[in-house]
Amino acid sequence: MTLSNATLDRLPEAVARPTYDRGALTPGIVHIGLGNFHRAHQAWYLHRLMQAAGARDWAIIGAGVRPYDAAMRDRLLAQDCLTTLIELDPAGVSAEVTGSMIDYLPIAEANGPLVEAMADPRIRIVSLTVTEGGYYLDPTSGAFDPEHPDIRHDAAHPDAPRTAFGAMVAALARRRAAGTAPFTAMSCDNLQGNGHILRDCVTGLARLIDADLAAWIEAEGAFPNSMVDCIVPATSPETLALARELGIEDAAPVTHENFRQWVIEDTFCNGRPAWEEAGATLTDDVHTYEAMKIRMLNGGHQVLANAGEILSVPTIADCMADADIAPFFRKVEAQEIVPHVAAVPDRTPTEYLELIAGRFANPAIRDSTRRVAFDGSSRHTGFVLPTLRDALDAGTPISGLALTEALWARMCTGEREDGTRIEPNDPFWNDLQAAAVAARSDPAAWVAQRGFYGPLGDAPRFAEAFGDWLGLIWAEGARAALRRYVAE
């Protein structure tokens, strides 16, 4: 059955679907970055509220700022912005069609439709999933980079912005001129303090354009921090086939695990849906939750994925079943990451390690090592290196973290140990590959990348351990290095 509003009542009986009148929904949220994660996570929480007769004035309008977003727009509009979510549980597969998104804005070079939509007073929240690398941060300091060419363009052409942040500033300027309250801007990306980072990006750009506008945004706006968690693989031909097996012809179905978590700082300037009624946690202490998740789950993903890529292990679940990679992951987590993570109200770091180990090992989730290893320049700097810094400061073990970085360097040469090619997988791939090739004979060439490592490359304990591990990987292979670390 081809998915659409008209066919909802003809879907297979086992497929859950909206019970609310989608024609009566009105928009309250613009979401920028309509990838799989948003549709399996934030959009699902809103759908759940709508199923319970709530949030009918908080429907989502989708948006994108890059030309490649147009293909997703076409697919979703053709099926009335409905999405099939397929839960992959070892105990069985289930499907649900969600309907909380009601439109997808045209993709335009100067982002005119996006600015106009965000200026609409009905829009009270603008949320984003634009990836960790999409925030125009200086890679060394982590601060907003006002010198980035895209930011300089938007500062010089505020009425024709190129970036999501430029579009947000333009819309906020219109709202201020019209006497309309600002919207809450909410990042849903895996960044520590993502609300603070988003505030810096929006107000930093606004300050380059109009200092009074920046001051108004600071005073009247809101940028809540949030932590999001759900493993959502990329859509594959197998995903499309699985949807068909379930009786649904969906051009953009999404698979996901049977776990979700959303922790949100309760600071909104213009109202919000009652997300806590759908299972989200509203709190004043997002930081502890996000530190645990980012360092252990996202950092753990990097521990696994680079080794998996080098050794041609296709998925994260396969890595967890590997006799060398899995013990490496567990030892790095337990001995080098857990000591630098605080407990949250309902879970200790050791308990969280057992939780994520089980989730990673779920054989029904075919989450590719390539997807997880993508954009290592952002993910290592954001997920792994903060723990390495803390460990160096505390004088605690770093050997496994140094090996993790050596595996990343080896992966960035672009060739697996079986001789197959690793296709470019990072926005800075050419620079990383050049440094990785040079590091084969001179390991310092890798850690000397100040844009990623900053002063870490000068830390003798890290530089020495990194060099030793990289030399062993090249001399005897990644498995030999993994085994030696586990045996230490």
Write the layout of secondary structure elements.
Blueprint: E1 27-32, H1 36-40, H2 42-51, E2 59-63, H3 69-77, E3 83-89, E4 92-98, E5 101-104, H4 112-119, E6 125-128, H5 149-156, H6 164-178, E7 184-187, H7 194-209, H8 211-220, E8 226-229, H9 237-245, E9 254-256, E10 261-265, E11 281-283, H10 286-310, H11 316-320, H12 325-337, H13 349-360, H14 369-373, H15 376-394, H16 399-411, H17 429-439, H18 444-447, H19 450-453, H20 460-476, H21 478-487
Parallel strand pairs: 1-2, 1-6, 2-5, 3-9, 6-7, 10-11
Antiparallel strand pairs: 3-4, 8-10
Helix pairs in contact: 4-6, 5-7, 6-7, 7-8, 10-12, 10-15, 10-16, 12-21, 15-16, 16-20, 16-21, 20-21
Shape: globular
- Name the average pLDDT: 96
Low-confidence stretches: none
Determine the number of helices (DSSP H or I, runs of at least 4 residues).
Answer: 21
- The tally of beta strands, per DSSP, is 11
What's the CATH C level of the largest domain? Answer: Alpha Beta
Q: Termini distance?
A: 56 Å
Specify the helix fraction band: 40-55%
Using only C-alpha atoms, the radius of gyration works out to 23 Å
Strand order of the largest sheet: 5-2-1-6-7
Structural class: alpha/beta
How would a textbook summarize the main sheet?
5 strands, parallel
Percentage beta strand: 5-15%
Number of domains: 2
* CATH superfamily grouping of the largest domain: NAD(P)-binding Rossmann-like Domain
CATH architect. name of the largest domain = 3-Layer(aba) Sandwich
CATH fold-level name of the largest domain: Rossmann fold
Offer a quick outline of the entry.
The chain is 47% helix and 11% strand. With 488 residues, it is α/β, with parallel strands linked by helices. The protein has 2 domains: 5-284, 3-Layer(aba) Sandwich (Rossmann fold), CATH 3.40.50; 287-487, N-(1-d-carboxylethyl)-l-norvaline Dehydrogenase, domain 2 (Orthogonal Bundle), CATH 1.10.1040.
